[in-house]
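Deliverable D2.4 — example input (structure tokens):
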């Protein structure tokens, strides 16, 4: 009898802390709480224990659960209790008789005469007796008897029942574990299905932790096929006497918890056959959260044979399926309370309406036909067709039902249930009103650091007057349609001339249209008349931005069109045109001073060479009388002052030039008169160089510090021939420009041979 007696208990075991399941039935407390239990005959509550019999002869006492327990689906069981047998006994028989723990289909309800260990005659079920009287020797003993069957042996005493495979009799435990005494003994009785013979049970009995029995028992007699019974304890004294007491009895019958006990799915039968098929396993998740962790068995109500193919169960008419849920990882009893109630009803699919969006006035909407709630029956298959004619002919099936593009109209769907029932529903396609938008233009002032761009506030673009909308902003139409590359800072969108797009969405239905916004950068407007100027460093000028601007703000703080008395420097003016302001810079440059690069003196003629500044130049020797020519003639010997100014007529530059004393003839005859050319007077000049050349241009003498810038008409001590020789003298004046001076001429040397 598989799954006969799993009492599904978990108590707080030694060495197994934390594995306590709820105690469904127990006898405990002080006084003992007997709610849900029946006391039979002489049994009574005595403070914290149940006294089955007093210490008197011919007494019978029992205690049992008031209601039977169905243990059909239990695989394991365990019971714990404490017992004590004491008293004075009798002179002839001593103490007797013993007591039994049982699970009986037919328990005692009143006094039982002659029942061995308190077990009635023909009682059927499991009996675990604790016997203290040897009926053969009429002496004391301590034996455990087990019967898994019917108590119909000699004198209805399980001591004499030896049904093969269904009984057990321990040796006398009196020497080591006597049952009679003043202290309580603790008993654990465990049972579990014998996997080698699933109709049998392996029973283990421990007394005070000592294993007494551990073997497999097969049901016999009335225990075969038994699924319902009463838990209880009984004792009898017979011709002897003893007090039989129990306490702390704990019986557990917890089952695998399930989410609900009854599932009533929609099912139907095929009109053509009257039959339907259903996958019973598809409802497992309605009984437990993680079906893969459990084992499910299905039965047609009233049939003890499991359904062989639950994934394709065929039925006709109302059918009740019982479901047994087993947790293979725990010691919980299987739960057989699950019911799948199959009540076939006619199947009808519902006509529905889907509403889509004519986004951006495309003319069609994209419909997800699979969202049409044409039925609530799970597991159906659907086929969609553009017309009823196509559906009936099985042609032109819609292959993209999740993204079906269509104007307003209708399509048809064939719905087939897992049981093969078929119906047709119409899906009406309607289109929401178009979101009304208009294109517009935004203008914004240029950004000074990047004049080709501007910062646009796209949120200010008036593209719709429709209420209940939201907006998103995109750089291109493609992005707006696809919802990609959204502009995340629409209130400050930096862009050049171009366009942006606003996707306007109806918040109520999600439909949208896209508006184009033309972006116009208002370019800077500069003054055409305000130009850089060049003036003399000591002069002032006027800067005029010209008319036509809304306002002016100069860097000087002036707000007039022009500012006067302006010296050399850099200035700016902010010119406002409309809403835009342009900052324009203007520079007043100092005119470049001319520079006298060198002066050539030939005799009494001086040529002044000038660079820089702005030609034309003017020249003067007295800063009063000016000439255009850079050549001065008939200059006196000695210091001369030269002034030069350019076209800006600024303060002139000036230098001092020494016109040396000219000696054109020397007679190196030693008379002390005109014997040498002497330019030592110029020795204080910078870079003074004095050279003599013959008429062929060959240098024949160089005056320097070693010869004190003199020449006596000789070459290496030898007199030169009488004749004319050329000379040049160059130096740099001791002014801030170190003006280069070159003086040249000829000299006649008269030597007497």
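Example output (designed residues):
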């Amino acid at each position: 009898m598989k799954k006969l007696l799993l009492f599904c208990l978990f108590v707080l075991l030694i060495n197994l802390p934390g594995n306590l399941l709820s105690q469904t039935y127990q006898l405990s407390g002080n006084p003992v709480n007997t709610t849900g239990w029946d006391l039979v005959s002489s049994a009574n509550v005595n403070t914290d224990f149940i006294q089955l019999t007093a210490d008197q002869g011919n007494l019978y006492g029992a205690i049992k659960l008031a209601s039977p327990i169905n243990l059909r689906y239990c695989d394991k069981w365990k019971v714990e209790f404490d017992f004590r047998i004491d008293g004075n006994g009798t002179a002839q028989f001593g103490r007797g008789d013993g007591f039994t723990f049982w699970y009986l289909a037919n328990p005692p309800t009143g006094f039982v005469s002659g029942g061995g260990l308190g077990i009635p005659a023909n009682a059927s079920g499991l009996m675990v007796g604790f016997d203290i009287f040897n009926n053969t020797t009429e002496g004391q003993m301590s034996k455990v008897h087990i019967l898994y069957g019917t108590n119909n042996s000699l004198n209805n005493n399980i001591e004499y029942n030896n049904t093969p495979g269904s009984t057990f009799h321990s040796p006398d435990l009196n020497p080591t574990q006597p049952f009679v005494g003043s202290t309580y003994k603790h008993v654990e009785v465990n049972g579990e299905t014998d996997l080698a013979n699933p109709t049998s049970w392996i029973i283990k009995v421990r007394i005070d932790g000592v294993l007494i029995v551990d073997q497999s028992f097969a049901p016999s007699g009335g225990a075969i096929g038994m699924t319902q019974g009463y838990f209880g304890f009984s004792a009898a004294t017979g011709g002897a006497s003893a007090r039989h007491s129990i306490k702390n009895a704990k019986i557990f019958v917890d089952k695998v918890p399930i989410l609900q006990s009854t599932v009533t799915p929609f099912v139907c039968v095929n009109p053509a056959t009257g039959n339907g098929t259903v996958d019973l396993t598809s409802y497992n998740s309605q009984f437990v959260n993680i079906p893969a962790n459990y084992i499910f068995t299905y039965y047609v109500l009233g049939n003890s044979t499991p359904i062989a193919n639950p994934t394709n169960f065929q039925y006709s008419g109302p059918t009740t399926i019982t479901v047994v849920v087993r947790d293979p990882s725990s010691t919980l009893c299987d739960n057989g309370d699950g019911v799948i109630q199959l009540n076939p009803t006619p199947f009808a699919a519902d006509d529905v309406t889907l509403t889509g969006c004519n986004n951006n006035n495309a003319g069609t909407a994209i419909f997800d036909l699979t969202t049409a709630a044409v039925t609530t029956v799970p597991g159906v298959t659907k086929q969609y067709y553009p017309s009823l004619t196509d559906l009936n002919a099985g042609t032109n099936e819609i292959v993209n039902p999740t993204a079906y593009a269509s104007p307003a109209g209708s399509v048809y769907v064939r719905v087939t249930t897992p049981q093969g029932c078929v119906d047709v529903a119409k899906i009406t396609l309607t289109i929401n009103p178009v979101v009304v938008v208009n294109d517009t233009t935004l203008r914004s002032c240029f950004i000074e650091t990047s004049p080709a761009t501007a910062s646009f506030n796209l949120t200010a673009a008036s593209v719709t007057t429709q209420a209940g909308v939201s907006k998103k902003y995109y750089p291109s139409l493609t992005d707006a349609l696809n919802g990609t590359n959204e502009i995340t800072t629409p209130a400050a969108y930096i862009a050049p001339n171009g366009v942006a797009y606003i996707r306007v969405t109806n918040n109520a239905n999600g439909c949208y249209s896209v508006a184009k916004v033309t972006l116009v950068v208002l370019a800077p407007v500069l003054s055409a008349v305000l130009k850089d100027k060049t003036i003399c460093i000591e002069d002032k000028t006027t800067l005029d931005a010209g008319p036509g601007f809304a306002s002016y703000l100069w860097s000087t703080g002036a707000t007039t069109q022009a500012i006067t008395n302006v010296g050399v420097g850099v200035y700016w003016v902010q010119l406002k045109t409309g809403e835009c302001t342009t900052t324009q810079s203007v520079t007043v440059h100092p005119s470049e001073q001319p520079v006298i690069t060198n002066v050539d003196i030939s005799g009494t003629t001086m040529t002044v060479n000038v660079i820089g500044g702005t030609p034309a130049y003017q020249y003067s020797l007295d800063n009063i009388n000016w000439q255009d020519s850079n050549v001065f003639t008939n200059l006196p010997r000695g210091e001369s002052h030269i002034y030069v100014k350019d076209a800006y007529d600024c303060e002139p530059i000036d230098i001092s030039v020494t016109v040396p004393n000219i000696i054109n003839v020397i007679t190196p005859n030693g008379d002390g008169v005109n014997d040498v050319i002497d330019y030592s007077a110029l020795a204080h000049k910078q870079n003074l160089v004095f050279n003599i050349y013959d008429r062929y241009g060959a240098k024949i003498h160089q005056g320097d510090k070693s010869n004190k810038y003199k020449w006596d008409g000789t070459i290496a001590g030898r007199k030169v021939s009488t004749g004319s020789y050329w000379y040049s003298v160059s130096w740099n004046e001791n002014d801030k420009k170190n003006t280069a001076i070159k003086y040249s001429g000829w000299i006649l040397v008269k030597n007497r041979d």
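Residues 351 and 426 are 5 Å apart (CA to CA).
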